[in-house]
């Protein structure tokens, strides 16, 4: 292997980039993985050095070789200027918003925003004097009608949490740009491998790296990547909020990054296969998956995305709760648990009726969010088929 660094000038395919970005083996005695640097104190060799503070690493919270490796890799994949790492996806949302919003500001969030992000706005931001308006995620360029003189930022989530509406990021970004309003995009579902919000006009792209980048359901992590205009605001938020991830978690995210391409491809193929099978079930009213041709967001997905992940939802026809319990409780391969993006398949029931304010949720029956893992599709379908048999027996 030639002694070269992880130069971003190679122009290689994304599948190659995720394997090599951030790795500098010959600065680590030839070991292919960046080591875990655990530390707070960084020593300075001279009085002049501590006054100048120009050495690459100055304090563990600020950066370590481990965190820099992941920051550099994500920055390149997102096509940004700089990346801030956080301890969770929710921390990525709060850090990104607090980088720009101040007391007296007004912000816009989609009505289908990640529910803990909504709680952050309704509780913490409200207490800090920041007002939040929730908007229809399908509003597109008409979002300009919601702008006020004190509107500071717009958050978009593509696709939306749980119900998978697909926003028109370029249209929203174009409207915001004309008013000097920041646009922050939650890119967790697609990752920078399948979508690059900064190229669509967003100023910031964030994600819960807990999901697909870590990929093994064993660590919490968030990433916030800004364009050149946003980078200094994110760095200031990182410093003043004291945000930083754990050393072990950062290593696990780097490890997960190396297999992101092959895992996402499998999640995509299996997710579409299972979604199509579910769409044909008599118990299913509709499937919510932007990559399916009949989905309302399919045209935007085809325009702005290069792939889909393994997360989608279905709305069932009316069914008694005891029958739904029979379906879910007996599943062998689908665990019931929050989060997603790991190797395992998951399912959770949800009902967004109580936490929508700008739109109304309409579903004839209960809704289920599925994450399709890395198991064989035939085995997953068999498990679901047996589940539907139990559902019918319990009616």
UniProtKB/TrEMBL annotation:
Record field: catalytic activity: L,L-cystathionine + H2O = L-homocysteine + pyruvate + NH4(+)
Cofactors required: pyridoxal 5'-phosphate
Protein origin, superkingdom: Bacteria
Residues recorded as bearing N6-(pyridoxal phosphate)lysine in the entry: 211
UniProt entry keywords in alphabetical sequence: Lyase, Pyridoxal phosphate
Biological processes per GO annotation: L-cysteine catabolic process to pyruvate; transsulfuration
NCBIfam families in alphabetical order: cysta_beta_ly_B
PANTHER family, A to Z: CYSTATHIONINE BETA-LYASE-RELATED
Protein name as catalogued: Cystathionine beta-lyase
């Amino acid at each position: 292997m030639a002694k070269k660094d992880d130069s971003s000038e190679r122009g290689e395919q994304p599948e190659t980039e995720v394997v090599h970005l951030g790795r500098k083996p010959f600065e680590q005695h030839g070991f292919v993985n960046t080591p875990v640097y655990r530390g707070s104190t960084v020593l300075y060799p001279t009085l002049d050095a501590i006054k100048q503070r120009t050495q690459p690493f100055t304090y563990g919270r600020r950066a370590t070789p481990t965190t820099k490796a992941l920051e550099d890799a994500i920055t390149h994949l997102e096509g940004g200027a700089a990346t801030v790492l956080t301890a969770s996806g929710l921390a990525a949302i709060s850090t990104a918003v607090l980088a720009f919003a101040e007391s007296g500001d007004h912000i816009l969030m989609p009505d289908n925003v990640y529910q803990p992000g909504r709680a952050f706005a309704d509780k913490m931001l409200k207490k800090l004097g920041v007002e939040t308006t929730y908007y229809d995620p399908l509003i597109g360029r008409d979002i300009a009608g919601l702008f006020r003189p004190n509107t500071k930022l717009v958050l978009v989530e593509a696709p939306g949490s749980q119900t998978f509406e697909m926003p028109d990021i370029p249209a929203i970004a174009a409207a915001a740009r004309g008013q000097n309003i920041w646009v922050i995009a939650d890119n967790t579902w697609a990752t920078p491998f399948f979508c690059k919000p900064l190229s669509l006009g967003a100023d910031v792209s964030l994600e819960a790296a807990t999901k697909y980048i870590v990929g093994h359901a064993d660590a919490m992590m968030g990433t916030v990547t800004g364009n050149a205009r946003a980078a200094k605001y994110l760095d200031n938020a990182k410093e003043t909020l004291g945000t930083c991830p754990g050393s072990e978690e950062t290593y696990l995210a780097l490890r997960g990054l190396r297999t992101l391409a092959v895992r996402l491809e499998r999640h995509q193929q299996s997710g579409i296969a299972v979604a199509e099978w579910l769409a044909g079930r008599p118990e299913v009213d509709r499937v919510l998956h932007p990559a399916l041709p009949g989905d309302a967001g399919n045209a935007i997905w085809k325009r702005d995305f290069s792939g889909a992940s393994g997360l989608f939802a279905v709305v069932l026809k009316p069914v008694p709760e005891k029958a739904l319990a029979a379906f879910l409780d007996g599943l062998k391969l689908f665990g019931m648990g929050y989060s997603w993006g790991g190797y395992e398949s998951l399912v959770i029931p949800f009902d967004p009726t109580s936490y929508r304010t700008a739109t109304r949720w309409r579903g004839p029956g209960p809704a289920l969010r599925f994450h399709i893992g890395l198991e064989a599709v035939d085995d997953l379908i068999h498990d679901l088929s047996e589940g539907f048999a139990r559902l019918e027996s319990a009616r």
